[in-house]
Design goal:
The chain has about 110 residues and is mostly helical. About 60% of the residues lie in helices and about 0% in strands. The termini are close together.
Length: about 110
């Protein structure tokens, strides 16, 4: 309720990709915004080094998984259904961890 509209942008982008009628990976480019926010939060708002690197590792893991899904011999775009929820969960986790560190900028 007290969050500014731009703080909800990653949530809106992830939900819009999740609920899109077609599961095209070409739409996943809009998920770069939440990923950039996660990286920025990890290195500016999360105090714990372990949590910081967990967020970075999660984003890299999702990227590798997406590449593997798309380059498999029997690749199918429907196999990437997990990517937007994974980004959404990682964004939420970064939000919780940044609030736990007492950041002024956390949303």
């Amino acid at each position: 309720r007290d969050q500014p509209l731009d703080a909800l942008l990653p949530l809106v982008l992830c939900v819009s990709v999740i609920t899109a009628p077609f599961g095209w990976t070409f739409d996943h480019v809009v998920l770069l915004v939440p990923q950039i926010i996660i990286f920025l939060r990890a290195f500016t708002e999360v105090e714990s080094a372990a949590r910081r690197w967990a967020l970075v590792f999660a984003i890299l893991l999702w990227q590798v998984g997406l590449v593997l899904c798309l380059t498999a011999p029997d690749a199918d775009y429907s196999r990437t259904w997990w990517f937007p929820p994974a980004i959404l969960a990682t964004w939420w986790l970064s939000s919780v961890w940044s609030r736990a560190s007492g950041s002024i900028l956390s949303s």
